[in-house]
Design brief:
The chain has 149 residues and is mainly beta. Helix content is 5%, strand content 50%. 28% of the residues are buried. The model has no long low-confidence stretch (mean pLDDT 91).
Length: 149
Amino acid sequence: MAGKTQDNNQIHIRLICLAPPPAQHEGRATEFGLQDKAQALQYGIALPDGSLQFDCDVTVSKLQGATPRYGGPYAHGTPGDQFLYLGWRPRGAEKGAWHRRGKVSLHTITRQQIEQVASNAGWGLQGIVRGLDAARLKLLDDGWTVVQG
C-alpha cells in the first residue's frame, strides 16, 4: 500500500526470486526468505513457475536534494548503500549462521518511481533476481519497475 505521511513516503516493494536455493543442503533442511533487521525471515509466496515472491513496505525520506533514505524492518545498510537482504540458512540455526545472503540494492530506485508509487494507491515497485549467485544480486530486466496491484 502506498501513502504519504509528513516528509515520508511509504512504498510497497515486491521482490521476485527466480531459482531460489534448495529446501535441503548437505542433508539438512533449510529456510530462505526476505530478512528483517532481527534476522527473521519472511518466506514468501511460491509462484507456479517455482519462483518466490516477497512483499514488504519501506518508508522513504529526504527526497528534497539528498539521497533517499529507506526505513522499516526490511531496509538495511547505510545512507547511500541501502538494500534488502535475501537469506538462506539451515532451518532452526542460530542467528548469523547463513549459508549465503544476497543484497538487493535500493539505490537504483529513482525519485520519479518513488513519487509515482507514493501518489497512486495500490501501486508498488517490483524487482526480479535470480537465486543467490552473488553477495550483491543484480536486478534483471530493467531493474526496479513500477507496477499496479
